[in-house]
């Protein structure tokens, strides 16, 4: 016990004397989460882009078409600006907007006269979500326009003469629309397609982009901290301190145990700041701060044992560094510790959840959401203790050969 | 105190150490002398438990280092060849850690830290990070960490490699002080003068074997007061050998195109005759070094090569 305490103190003193390594490990995920939050939300829930409209027609129909973007929910996603065709093109070339919609002159006439009409949508290839939303919205409206043209071409044509309609024309058009409405009533009322809505989770009012990204970034931080701690054992090897330790009465297992305890204390600080940050700064409704914190600590310790067991099989420090990065980065990317599973294609998210960090982050989110409890923590901790013990034994055995 | 008996260490087909036996007593400084690769560090590794012997036994204070490892190591202090310290920690912090590794407890540990800091002259720098220390200071702290728990047996593996002369003298004084206090010291080096100045008894190692052992006078007597004459220049090896046969009691230890090493009695009187026969054989002597009987000449006599090779 005396040595365990000396070992923990030594490791913590070393971190205190050189906090830069730890700060770097934590700084990268922190910078990433800040940037991602700023880019995607600026503090709001949904991303926002710019839609340029070159309305060369300037008619009721063209205004109806673009009117959808001035109402919620699209108005929250898009800031609509009018622009000339050429100016719009130039701004798109500069990447100044998500999409440019060109409504050519004669669009309304063509629709009402049952003639072919063409809208042009130019999208920004460097963006994926917003241009797609714009494209889908306009497609739906064009489709709606097509059916309107089919069903009400004659009354529409009578309106689209360019002259103010007479009372007789208005009465005639009203009767025509009434007849169309009645003919559609058997399909519309009651509707043939029924929307069956199932609420699978309580809507979380405070959920935001930071809330989606922060668990991922916390686990990325854990992986980075664990990996930098792993490399420290190689430094000790090169300094000769491990060899010297092997000439003392204490066991290498005690040294590794001390290292694990010091790592746990560091992770405790990291986890408390991370989970506290989620709850009080990012407004994520964390159901259980203690359970989430303990889970983070246990996960970080297991990652460390996993990485150190592998790193000690490397031929030198440089190779250990390369191997560590080759493991940590793909694990972070695939295991939901860089991009959240919510942003991944389904097939990738399914695979990612089977990675060690993917499993850990899924359980962590359950602790945050409140769908996992103390019993789940104990079961998970049991698994980690079993795997960790095995890795511990492998590591100690390898350390003896490693000297 | 320290007993090494028929020690053997092999790696597959490579035999690093073979049939090494010696014993060192309390208060004695026992030297292991040999060139790089002679097997000194392997022997030390087997004694301190870093390596498992392939055969033979090592006992520290009666404890077998394999079967009773922790008990044996509790009596050992090891000063490694490298400076095995945490350079980002202070001298105090390093000593506290290595004291913990020797299972020392406060307040005894605190007292002992002060003692060794004073002994090594580092008390004024105790709170500074080791990375700010000079090479000599780091060596002294390296030593201090090993004697903190007052070991019964102290192993020093070439502790003065790369150390400036002043720090070397200070370090050797510290080793002598430990021996005077009753510690059994095993000291490995490839510096002849260091071994001659420090060690009470010596074992000379080469190719993993002890080729000679004894006190300094015993080892010197093996040379029978013969001088070592080192000639450099241009030689025809066979002609030079034939020429040397004309001089009484000259033994050629080594001879090639550029070097001739001779062992002989009364070398200074025989120098003119040696130069004459060599000139007659067509040799051109450009340099001459005459060495009185020493460990170096003994080593050359035993191995046919110089220690620095």
Search tags:
heterodimer, A: 403 residues, mainly alpha, abc type-2 transporter like fold, 2 domains, four-stranded mixed sheet, 17 helices, 4 strands, 68% helix, 5% strand, B: 309 residues, alpha/beta, Rossmann fold, Alpha-Beta Plaits, six-stranded mixed sheet, four-stranded antiparallel sheet, 36% helix, 29% strand
Question: Would you kindly provide a written description of the structure presented here, covering whatever features stand out?
Answer:
- The complex is a heterodimer of chains A (403) and B (309).
- Chain A is 68% helix and 5% strand.
- Chain A has two domains: 236 residues, no CATH class; 119 residues, 3-Layer(aba) Sandwich (abc type-2 transporter like fold).
- By secondary structure, chain A is mostly helical.
- A four-stranded mixed β-sheet of chain A has the order 2-1-3-4, with helices on both faces.
- Chain A is elongated, with a radius of gyration of 31 Å.
- In chain A, 34% of the residues are buried.
- With 309 residues, chain B is of the alpha/beta class.
- Chain B has two domains: 220 residues, Rossmann fold (3-Layer(aba) Sandwich); 66 residues, ACT-like. Chain A, domain 2 (Alpha-Beta Plaits), CATH 3.30.70.1150.
- In chain B, the strands form three sheets. Chain B has a six-stranded mixed β-sheet, sandwiched between helices.
- In chain B, strand 12 and strand 13 form a beta hairpin.
- Chain B starts with a strand and ends in a 6-residue tail after the last helix.
- The relative contact order of chain B is 0.14.
- The mean pLDDT of chain B is 89.
- Chains A and B meet through helix 1 and helix 11 of A and helix 2 and helix 3 of B.
The CATH class of the largest domain in chain B turns out to be Alpha Beta
Mean pLDDT of chain B: 89
In terms of quaternary structure, the protein is heterodimer
Summarize the helix and strand pattern of chain B as letters.
Answer: EEEHEEHEHHHEHEHEEHEHEEHEH
Structural class of the secondary elements of chain A? mainly alpha
State the secondary-structure class of chain B. Answer: alpha/beta
């Amino acid at each position: 016990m005396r040595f365990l305490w000396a070992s923990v103190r030594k490791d913590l003193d070393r971190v205190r004397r050189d906090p830069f390594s730890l700060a770097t490990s934590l700084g990268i995920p922190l910078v990433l989460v800040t940037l991602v939050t700023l880019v995607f939300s600026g503090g709001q829930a949904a991303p926002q882009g710019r839609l340029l409209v070159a309305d060369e027609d300037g008619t009721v129909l063209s205004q109806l078409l673009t009117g959808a973007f001035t109402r919620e929910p699209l108005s929250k996603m898009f800031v609509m600006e009018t622009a000339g065709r050429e100016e719009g093109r130039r701004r798109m070339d500069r990447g100044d907007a998500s999409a440019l919609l060109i409504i050519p002159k004669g669009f309304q006439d063509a629709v009402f006269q049952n003639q072919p009409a063409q809208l042009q949508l130019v999208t920004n290839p460097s963006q994926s979500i917003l241009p797609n939303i714009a494209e889908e919205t306009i497609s739906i409206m064009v489709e709606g326009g097509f059916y309107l043209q089919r069903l009400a071409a004659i009354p529409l044509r009578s309106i689209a003469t360019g002259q103010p309609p007479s009372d007789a024309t208005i009465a005639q058009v009203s009767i025509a629309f009434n007849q169309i409405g009645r003919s559609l009533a058997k399909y519309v009322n009651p509707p043939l397609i029924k929307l069956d809505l199932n609420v699978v989770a309580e809507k979380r009012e405070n959920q935001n982009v930071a809330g989606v990204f922060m668990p991922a970034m916390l686990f990325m931080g854990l992986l980075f901290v664990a990996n930098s701690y792993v490399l420290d054992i190689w430094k000790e090897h090169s300094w000769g301190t491990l060899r010297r330790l092997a000439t003392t009465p204490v066991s290498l297992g005690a040294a590794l145990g001390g290292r694990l305890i010091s790592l746990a204390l560091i992770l405790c600080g990291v986890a408390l700041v991370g989970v506290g940050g989620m709850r009080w700064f990012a407004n994520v409704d964390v159901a259980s701060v203690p359970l989430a914190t303990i889970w983070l600590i246990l996960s970080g310790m297991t990652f460390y044992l996993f990485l150190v067991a592998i790193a000690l099989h490397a031929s030198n420090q440089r190779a250990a560094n390369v191997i560590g990065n080759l493991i940590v980065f793909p694990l972070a990317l695939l295991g939901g510790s860089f991009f959240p599973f919510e942003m991944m294609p389904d097939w990738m998210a399914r695979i990612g959840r089977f990675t060690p960090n993917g499993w850990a982050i899924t359980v962590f989110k359950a602790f945050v959401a409140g769908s996992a409890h103390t019993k789940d923590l104990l079961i998970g901790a049991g698994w980690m203790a079993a795997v960790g013990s095995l890795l511990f034994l492998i590591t100690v055995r390898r350390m003896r050969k490693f000297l | 105190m320290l007993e090494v008996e028929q020690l053997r260490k092999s790696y597959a087909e490579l035999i690093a150490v073979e049939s090494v036996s010696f014993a060192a007593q309390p208060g004695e400084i026992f030297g292991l002398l040999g060139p790089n690769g002679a097997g000194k560090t392997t022997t030390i590794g087997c004694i301190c438990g870093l390596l498992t012997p392939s055969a033979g036994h090592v006992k520290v204070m009666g404890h077998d280092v394999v079967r009773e490892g922790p008990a044996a190591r509790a009596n050992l202090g090891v000063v490694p060849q490298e400076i095995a310290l945490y350079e980002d920690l202070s001298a105090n912090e390093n000593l506290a850690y290595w004291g913990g590794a020797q299972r020392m407890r406060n307040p005894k540990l605190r007292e002992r830290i002060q003692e060794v800091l004073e002994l090594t002259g580092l008390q004024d720098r105790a709170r500074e990070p080791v990375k700010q220390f000079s090479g000599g200071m780091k060596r002294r702290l390296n030593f201090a960490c090993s004697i903190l728990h007052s070991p019964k047996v102290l192993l020093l593996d070439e502790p003065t490699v790369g150390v400036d002369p002043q720090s070397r003298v200070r370090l050797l004084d510290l080793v002598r002080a430990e021996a005077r206090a009753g510690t059994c010291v095993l000291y490995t080096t490839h510096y002849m003068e260091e071994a001659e100045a420090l060690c009470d008894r010596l074992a000379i190692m080469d190719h993993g074997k002890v080729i000679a052992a004894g006190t300094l006078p015993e080892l010197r007597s093996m040379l029978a007061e013969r001088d070592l004459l080192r000639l450099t220049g241009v030689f025809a090896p066979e002609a030079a050998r034939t020429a040397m046969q004309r001089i009484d009691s000259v033994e050629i230890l080594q001879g090639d195109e550029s070097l001739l090493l001779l062992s002989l009695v009364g070398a200074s009187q025989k120098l003119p005759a040696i130069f004459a026969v060599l000139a007659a054989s067509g040799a051109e002597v450009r340099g001459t070094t005459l060495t009185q009987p020493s460990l170096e000449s003994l080593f050359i006599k035993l191995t046919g090569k110089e220690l620095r090779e």
